TrEMBL record:
<feature type="transmembrane region" description="Helical">
    <location>
        <begin position="55"/>
        <end position="77"/>
    </location>
</feature>
<keyword id="KW-1003">Cell membrane</keyword>
<keyword id="KW-1133">Transmembrane helix</keyword>
<dbReference type="Pfam" id="PF00001">
    <property type="entry name" value="7tm_1"/>
</dbReference>
<keyword id="KW-0812">Transmembrane</keyword>
<keyword id="KW-0472">Membrane</keyword>
<feature type="transmembrane region" description="Helical">
    <location>
        <begin position="201"/>
        <end position="220"/>
    </location>
</feature>
<dbReference type="InterPro" id="IPR000276">
    <property type="entry name" value="GPCR_Rhodpsn"/>
</dbReference>
<feature type="transmembrane region" description="Helical">
    <location>
        <begin position="145"/>
        <end position="167"/>
    </location>
</feature>
<comment type="similarity">
    <text>Belongs to the G-protein coupled receptor 1 family.</text>
</comment>
<feature type="transmembrane region" description="Helical">
    <location>
        <begin position="232"/>
        <end position="252"/>
    </location>
</feature>
<feature type="domain" description="G-protein coupled receptors family 1 profile">
    <location>
        <begin position="1"/>
        <end position="249"/>
    </location>
</feature>
<keyword id="KW-0675">Receptor</keyword>
<feature type="transmembrane region" description="Helical">
    <location>
        <begin position="98"/>
        <end position="118"/>
    </location>
</feature>
<keyword id="KW-0297">G-protein coupled receptor</keyword>
<protein>
    <submittedName>
        <fullName>Trace amine-associated receptor 1-like</fullName>
    </submittedName>
</protein>
<dbReference type="GO" id="GO:0001594">
    <property type="term" value="F:trace-amine receptor activity"/>
</dbReference>
Amino acid sequence: LLVIVSISHFRQLRTPTNLLLLSLAVCDCLVGLLVMPFQILLIEPCWLLSDLACVLYYFIPFITVSASVLNMVLISVDRYVAICDPLHYSTKFTQQTVKVCVLLCWICSIFYSFMTLLDNLKQPGRYKSCDGECVININGAVDLVISFVLPVSAIIILYVRVFVVAVSQARSMRSHVVAVKLQRSLTVTVQRSELKAARTLGVVVAVFLMCYCPSYGMSLSGDIKISPSTNLFVYFLVYFNSCLNPVIYAFFYPWFRKCVKLIVTLHILQPQSRLTKVM
């Protein structure tokens, strides 16, 4: 919520990259507000609500997980263009372009979730073996490929490319003479800023992969018996990723720490607080 308020309120933070972080923060917030509180209903031995409510409940986790994955892909593309093609970044990644991409991201997530759960909506409760169960059926192989294999492959390929270019730029900077013109000095400063942003978002993506891999790894395990406690822990790990993202922001983004201080001290209620310089 602090990330959402910070980027939404302070005009200086409304950059294309931060708009992607805003969309990711909305996913995190929805997990905390709508997904986690209802997990207790799935832990209980009996599902107390209707079969339709069971299917509808799964819509929110499916949408948030799909949106998180797509947002990670967009963030990776954003860093790839910023590092590998910096001269055209400002023209390719405008605020309007990013807003359209984020909108399409959420539309695709909602559509994919609807198509995935469509069979369960036609006849709610058809897959449960006894009363009091909340069970749905999805095509695990299709979900694994679309929700994990394809986007994660794209993320890894893009970040490997970013890493290679970043190392190349770092070596190039070291080889330059210290005394340079102001223009070149500004360019180096911008490049370092972009590299730092790439490193921070790289940590976000790495944590994302560590939290999501066990869940989708279970999909590849086939008929291997997995205890209910292990199953619960693995899915909790997916949701826990939403808690880790803001923590990473707090550690790596100075502007976020400054924004939190301004929000907690109610500075944002003052006139013209939107124009405060936080970067």
